[in-house]
Amino acid sequence: MVATMMPRAANAADVLGVQGTVKRAYPLRELRTHGASAAADEARDAFTLGDGPCGPDAARVLTIVLENARTFESCVVFLYDQWADKMRFLQRHYKVRIQGRGLVMAPYWDGDSLDDTEDQQLPYYVVAERHLLKKALERFPNARNFPSALPRGISIDITYGEPLRVGESDQLRYLPPVTIYARDLYRDKDTRVSSETPVSASQNARGKRALQKTTGGYMYTCLGDLIPGKADLYGVVVNFSLPKRTRGTDYSMTVNIVDESCPRREGAIQIMVFQSSLERMPRLLYVGDIIRFHKLTINKYNGNLQGVCSSQFTRYLVLREKENDPNELEQLTCSESWTFDVADQVRARELVNWSKQNLCADTTFCAGYPHPPMLLSEIVSIGCYVDVVVKVLFIDQSRGEHYVRLIVWDGSGDGDASKSNSSAALLLAKHSIALPATQGVLKQIVFDSCWGLLRDMGFAYKLLNHWCRFRNLPVEEKQQRDEGDPSTDDDVELRFREGSSLVFVPEGMRDVRDRLALVNPKSTEAASDDDDASASVVLDRPVEKVWTIIPKHIHGKVPVTSLEDVRRSGVVPRKYLCLARVVRIWPEDITKITKVVQKQPQPQSGGCASSEYIYSFVLRLQDVDSCTLDMIVYGSDAEHFLRGIPPCDLMTSTSSRIVLSKRFVALLRNPQPLHWCIKAYTPATSSRSSGASVSVTSVVRYRLFDTLLQYQGDLLV
């Protein structure tokens, strides 16, 4: 559980905040008094997390453990005296947010009263009145896990959401949030909070309360609110695999879905779908299809939430706009009957409209696919597996279902496809198939045994009409040649086998736009003047938004330092948090920001040296005072900064070069200052002890660390 920083106020202390769901709530306890039996105290506290830092001075304590619903990180919160009385009703599953000046945070509580439990090393927070915090500071003047001073004024507020159990489901709905302010502690001081916030008689020990029966059918849970158990939900499909046989007699496939509460592909919820036959599998075709599940089982797997669609209990419904009438929704399911009322129509239409914007803006990648698809012109290595986004120009079934060839194109490459002597170009010419553009290389995708699966799932009849994303295609040497084909221009081909997958991609998505831009580079700039409204929606992109993300513990503890103060500082090594914009990047040639370095030989490699690519470039920063500073971006820090774009040979990797160019252009055009974590150091040749001052003639350099660049679509978080 990490703290969040609220905006700074003038001449005010930083405002800390923490939020999460109550994982455990310990009852309100009266703290030990003088003369009490030590044995009685020990027996009473056997199942607690101790008294916390203010225990010796407080009369009562309430302890809760909060958990982040997405990362599953936890923290401990101690509430004392008036705050303990006010919040004594908290139980499991309550959503809680605590923020304000005077909220105390430390990495962990290491007091003697804390038992050796799994919560011992969790970060902790203290919510108490000023006089209790002051006494704790006096008692721990030099404690490294406790703050050294309090702000002048303490103003804390706690917002909570009460959970309600959805009927016939394990999921939760929450009442509107309620906020308790510090000033409320002293209102009706003689009246305990139990009379102000009564707990319902029907509330059980788990902190849930049964929701009254509704007249509607199902109550759907947002993906961001899912907890383990049964759930009814809607989602937008961003990726899926083709069905395959399990070890038994069933078929299985994976589906990744998002919604407004979980909008990025990298955080999509994975659903495992199991059915007894291929005919009963969901007929998914497109990125952007809507799928609805009833009685879906939600589990926690490898630290992430995962859904399981069982053939016995779960029901699904696939929805998409009809091609001949977008105002109508096509409904596909394996059930003999299903419900779809006005509320379902409204929800499905909301997701359809939302996905058209979100999918075009989201630049993240699905889990397990950290890299952008490769361009056809980059495929040269036999034996590797590639993902491609292509347009299918021709389907050759002349040799039967066991050898089907697709001729594909993506606009990459400098050659003239219309004048190519490749077998793919000759095959297109033989059947009088025109190219969408003269530029670009052609490749073949060969199906050995999976063509029947694509036909049964509905792909085969629409391949020529859409952009297609193929995943996990092995690159092999061409095994068969057409009779009389003397061409040696295309010695490699792509194979579609078990484990490969296919999905149709809308033209508005980034991968397709990048490929269209290869053929017509001015299309993105000219889109705003295009008379075609649909094209302007897809391609009209003003200055693309970028921003940086830094660790919240740095944002919470390290003040912003001006670049002038950074340059004048005489202490190295030292770390700073700065606010500035990028005014220059060099090398200016994007292909030169990576370089080859030699790796140390490993024993298992027989002592043979190897090489790898790393990032190495410089950003010139300028703050509001017009002071500039050159910051080095290098190695693993650069890979973190450009997450999802691994260093490679940018002379040959066109897709990575395009993605990086767009981010750098957006950085230079961005007028707003961004946060940067910068460390000052001296080169290794001039050794110096930690914290030593630097002479005027010493060389001080500045390097980026722990800073992540986010680009446009991530604003939807």
TrEMBL record:
Keywords: Chromosome, DNA-binding, Telomere. It is found in: Chromosome, Telomere. InterPro entries: NA-bd_OB-fold, POT1, Telomer_end-bd_POT1/Cdc13. One of its GO terms (cellular component) is nuclear telomere cap complex. Its main location: nucleus. GO terms for biological process: regulation of telomere maintenance via telomerase; telomere capping. GO terms for molecular function: G-rich strand telomeric DNA binding; telomerase inhibitor activity. It holds the Pfam family POT1. This is Telomeric single stranded DNA binding POT1/Cdc13 domain-containing protein. It comes from Globisporangium ultimum (strain ATCC 200006 / CBS 805.95 / DAOM BR144) (Pythium ultimum). The lineage of its organism: Eukaryota, Sar, Stramenopiles, Oomycota, Peronosporomycetes.
